[in-house]
Amino acid sequence: MRIAMIGTGYVGLVSGACFADFGHQVTCVDKDESKIAALHRGEIPIFEPGLDALVAANVKAKRLDFTTDLKQPVADADAVFIAVGTPSRRGDGHADLTYVYAAAREIAACLTGFTVVVTKSTVPVGTGDEVERIIRETNPSADVVVASNPEFLREGAAIRDFKWPDRIVVGTADERGRKVLGDIYRPLSLNQAPIMYTARRTAELIKYAANAFLATKITFINEVADLAEKVGADVQEVARGIGLDNRIGAKFLHAGPGFGGSCFPKDTRALIKIAQDNDTQLRIVESVLAVNDNRKRAMARKVAHAVGGNLRGKTIAVLGLTFKPETDDMREAPSIPLVTGLLDMGAKVRAHDPVGIEQAKKELPEIAYYDDPYDCATGADAIVLVTEWVQYRAMDLDRLKEVMAHPVVVDLRNVYRPDEMAAHGFIYESVGRPSAKGA
Ligand code: UDX
């Protein structure tokens, strides 16, 4: 199969490299010349474990190529994937579809032979209809099927998620379209991934509903964590206790500082708008978003409480800034409102992150950055563990206590156990578990 992938962002680059790895002939297209030039030099614009090696291997095997000009790759393609960005539109939270529609117009003009045009970007229900209208208007004679094939990959685990998905959703009623996409994904049948064929609008809604449900699960356990703290229960055991019920499932029940990232906040916001546009209200999803926003802000108050109520003049060392480990992505990271809140309350903030410092400087230019977590902790009145990087999972606790001015640890990811922190002499606060205080 010949594939053109429009957009070399997260989804486009990972999908393009993985499709090439399946044995397909893939050309990734991006308007950004510097990005394409970098890819030609073998430089990957995003941090994703394993992606550089996957790209290099497939470029070497001549199955993967990059260009700024979509004309030839689209003309040659059996399938053209639209994987351009759909950011939140400033001001109203709707998904901004400018890039998707511009891509559709450009693709339309270059189509030859039967082609399936596939939206992989997360797009509001009905976008496929509009993409089809644009293509037919621009090129009335095009032999084209427009399908939806949403992507469910997580940053940091993107290649594994792409190659071992729980399911593949193909949204088109057209048999020829279903066949092409079925052939493209056939290598995954070895990994037992079921392909679900459905209508285009249903596929579009599946993506939003999946993200909103997962965001709801996280927000639910976060609220239970707040209650657990008040009543002296342990939220991690509660999560295990409910998660063992197959109807609930154990995943996405890890309490923390609130969800962030490029998908959950943006997609829940967009889904609420889609509902409103269709005279419906998704009150649960609206609450999830509001509760999550409040939670991120509340984390700074939690730190203030841990240091005795007053942050003025206190030095706070923040460990982990990215919205989750194994990525340098700072989009909607809980660390941003946390650090801003700490600064507002008069704290001096310094931070460490294994890979996210350069991105973090753009969001949080006013704090001090350290290359080493122990240097960052030296002289601090408290440590706040915000992102559960492996580097923070087995720290030398005695050394940490030694270098700190006061042994206070606020662990927003429940990485450590209260009893072990107490044994090492820390004052320890976590999420949804009893506080601990060492001697
Ligand atoms: C998510 C979806 O998982 C993926 O299917 C979709 O395609 C894109 O959005 P991603 O944003 O990369 O992927 O990260 P994910 O691992 O899902 O985490 C999202 C946020 O939720 C992070 O801030 C994470 O820390 C938080 N989270 C996740 C929790 O707080 N608790 C959990 O139990 C799980």
From TrEMBL:
Q: Describe the reaction catalysed, as an equation.
A: UDP-alpha-D-glucose + 2 NAD(+) + H2O = UDP-alpha-D-glucuronate + 2 NADH + 3 H(+)
- Using the record's annotation, list all stretches that form the UDP-glucose/GDP-mannose dehydrogenase C-terminal domain: 317-418
- Xref: InterPro entries: 6-PGluconate_DH-like_C_sf, NAD(P)-bd_dom_sf, UDP-Glc/GDP-Man, UDP-Glc/GDP-Man_DH_C, UDP-Glc/GDP-Man_DH_C_sf, UDP-Glc/GDP-Man_DH_dimer, UDP-Glc/GDP-Man_DH_N, UDPglc_DH_bac
Q: What is its EC number?
A: 1.1.1.22
Q: Where is the signal peptide?
A: none
Pathway it works in: Nucleotide-sugar biosynthesis; UDP-alpha-D-glucuronate biosynthesis; UDP-alpha-D-glucuronate from UDP-alpha-D-glucose: step 1/1
Which EC class is the enzyme in?
A: oxidoreductase
The domain of life is Bacteria
The entry assigns this protein to a family as follows:
Belongs to the UDP-glucose/GDP-mannose dehydrogenase family.
Instruction: Quote the protein name from its UniProt record.
Output: UDP-glucose 6-dehydrogenase
Organism of provenance: Bradyrhizobium denitrificans
